[in-house]
Structure formats: C-alpha cells, structure tokens
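Reviewers of the previous submission asked for a worked example of the structure-prediction workflow described in the proposal, so we include one complete record here. The input consisted solely of the amino acid sequence. No template or homolog information was supplied to the procedure at any stage.
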Amino acid sequence: MNTIDADARRLQSLGYKQELTRGFTCLTNYGMSLSVISVTSGLSSLFSYGMITGGPVVMIWGWLVVCFFTLFVVFGMAEICSAYPTAGGLYYWTGILVPQRHKALASWFTGWFNLIGQFAVTAAIDFGLATLIASVISLCFDMQWSPKPYHILLIHLSIIISQGICNSLGVRFLSWLTYVSTWWQLLAPIIVSITLLVGAKPGHQSMKFVFTEFKNETGWTNKVYVILMGLLQAQYVLTGYDASAHMTEETKQADKASPWGMISAILVSAVIGWLFLIAFCFGIHDYNHTLQTPTGFPITQILLDNFSREWTLVFMSLLLVACWFCGLTSITANSRMIYAFSRDHALPGSRWWHTIHSRLSCPINAVWLSCAIAFLPALLYLVNTTAYVAITSLSTICLYISYALPIGCKLFYPNIFLGGPFHLGKFSTLINTVAVLWVSVIVVLFLMPPVHPVTAVTMNYASVGVGGVLIFAGLAYVLSARYWFYGPATNANINIDKIHMNKNFI
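From that input alone, the workflow returned the following structure tokens.
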C-alpha cells in the first residue's frame, strides 16, 4: 500500500474520509508552523513592548525561559497529534480523550478558544505588518509622510486580500509558497542579524548592556511583575505551531511528519529568535531615541542607525516579506480549522465553510471567512491605539488555553489515550503536567495590565475578550448546542469509538 492510501486509511479510522489533497511533505508541514511562528513578524512588532517591559535582559533571557517551557507544551501536543492526525486538531483530540458524557462540552470549548485565538493572531500578524509597511513608506519619503489610522486600515485590508487570493489558488501553489516561506523565515532574520552584528557602526551597545541591562518604562515599580509582563513578547511569538496539526489531512505520513513539524519549528525558532534579539539589542545606539523613534518601530531605527537608508530599506524588505508569509500561512491554518469545525457542524452556516472546491481541493469559503474576520479587529485601532497589544494578548491566551485542554484531558483520563508513532514514553505524564502548569501561569499573567496607571487607553482588554469567549461559547452551548452538538462527527460512516478497538493503524 502506498503512503497516500495509508494516510487516507488512517484518517478513515478516525472517522473522516479523505477530501483534501495531500500535497504537503514533512518539510512543508514544518515550514507551515515555522512560518506562522515567524520570529521576524512577532519580534519586529513587539520589540518596543520588550524595550519598556524589562529591556534587553528580559528580552534575551526571558526568550530562553519561554522557549524552555513552550517545549513542554509542544511535546505534549505532538504526542497527541501523532495519535490523532486530523485537521480539527485540538478540539478533536479533546473530544476523543474524555469519556463520552464530556465529549461535546470539551470539544465545544476547545474548538472555540482555538478558533478565536487563530482569528486574533491572524489579525495581529497582519495589522503589525500594516504598521510596519507604513513605517517603511514613511522612511522612503524622509519621514515627510505620516500614516493616518485609515492608511493603516487600507494597508491591512490589502495585505489580507493578497493572502486570501494566494490561499485560493490551489494546494499545489500553496505548497510551493510554503516551501519558499520555509527558507525565507530561516534565512531572512539570519542574514539581517549577522549583518547587524558584523557591520554595526560605532556607538552600538556593550555585551554587558545586552545581557544585563534592565529597563522599566511601564509605570509599575515591582520588578518581578515587570519581568513577567515582558514574557508576553516571547510567548506571543511562540504560538501558532498547531498549524502543523491543522494541515495533517494535507500532509503525507502525517502521524510522523506533523509532530516533528511542530517540534522542529519551535527549536529552530528558538535559535533564530535569540540571535535576532541579541543582534538588535547590540545595534541600539540611543535607547530613548530608539524607543520614541519617528519611524514608529525600534527595529527600523536600529537599522537606520547602523546602515544607510538604502540598506535599511533592503533589510526591512527582507523582513516584510517574511511577515507577509507569516500572515499567509496563518490564514491557511485558520481556514483548515474553520473547515474541520464546520465539518462537525459547530459553526453557524457550517455547510458553506466546509465546502471543498472540486478543482482546487481547498476550502475557499473558509479562507475568505478567515480573511474577513481577521480584518474586523483592526477597526479597534480607530478607537484605541493600544488595541494591538490587547489583540496579541488575546490570541496568546486563547490559543494556549486550547493547547492545554487536550493535554489536561489526557492527564485526567490516561487510559483512553492510544499512542501514535511519536510517543513520550515514561516522561509523558511529567511533560504534560509541566505544560498545563505553564499555560495556567501565562493565562493569568497576560490578563494583567502591562502599563500603570491603568486607564481606558492602557487597559488590557484581553480580559474582556477572554470573558467574551467564555460567555459566548457557554451561552451558545447551554441554550442551543447541547441539543445538537455531539463533538467530532464523522463523514466516513465509521463509528469514531472504533479507534480505541483498532490498533493496526497506530
């Protein structure tokens, strides 16, 4: 039996028929997660946040701390993904890892937290890119042009439309773009970082400054609190690796490729991100001027302080393309989650969103729904200019809640789980426990206000967003979904419980 037949048969054992084309390899599956993580996108957008919440010492060492604990989460997810490789990913895992009486409720909340987190992270990625592009345009005109909020919104809309079009051209084209993105995400930040380390002009910072300097511009006086707030920068970047799980139905040998795709993406991102942070911290000349730069972004100012305007534009262009690829792959992963959740009838208008285009073999309606919803949060910018940080907090919290729920279910009901090709063995319980504890800490942490005094402008509205998800999902379930949603459904005429009686596919 060839690989594709084996993958289709494995999917059928989980209760679904093969509808999508398996055009992704182990490399492009890994590239999907690497691209959604995109250290270039996250660190470029939140570098100023890191500069005020602890400065270089928190950015450099906090990055390693977050990478270390994130590995526990990704190992826990990879183990489950190997056993249940479906596009639904986390909500499917949760539903199958609990007793039948809890299946619908567990799947419902996991699915909605993952979906809202994906909507928020896509919006945050593309809105950050829009403001970065506006910064570069302003630099092209010698800072004689300043973007208005509606300029940012129009750029944001243009980005989303371009990414939607590319996601609508079929799996073969998308696979090729993902391949290009994989190498771009790897090489672009390395090239810029090494050039900055080697070619920086006199006036750059010392090693002592980069590795020990603490800066606090938050208004809070408690150092520990400020340091903990500073971890958001790294934790926001290290999200989205569930993309490998959502692409399993389009990946060959998914039960092996997808787990290693997640793990490899985090390990590679950890190294590249640390190099990126060190290079840009070394490149700072005047800290206050860099933080309050007229370009709007510290990384732009750092490059401008060390290179000519022309070379700065070249380097920024490399980074902008990486950010665009990040948004592209985020929409891809989001659309597959929409497709899978709708396949199980969990979304309003489900019959529209799980439709597969017969010629292109992709869920085009789901792609454009993802694009539409990713644009809407940007409208908050017209009301509150700090909305971006709230969106990043919301995306991080919602995604990590959805990451922790299946891992927690596996801990509570260990006898239900049947391992796949990738298994943690005797370390599984320890790794899963640390993962759940870490997520519990960051969820509470990132609901707290990062800046003092807390006003209507500086308030962390992520708490409102998370509360809104809980209230919406809870009321929807109690008033309606509990009567018709039974958890992951099937479209292959196979009883989903048979997976626990058939180990031939594991």
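Residues 103-140 form the longest helix (38 residues). We consider this example representative of the routine output the project will generate in years two and three.
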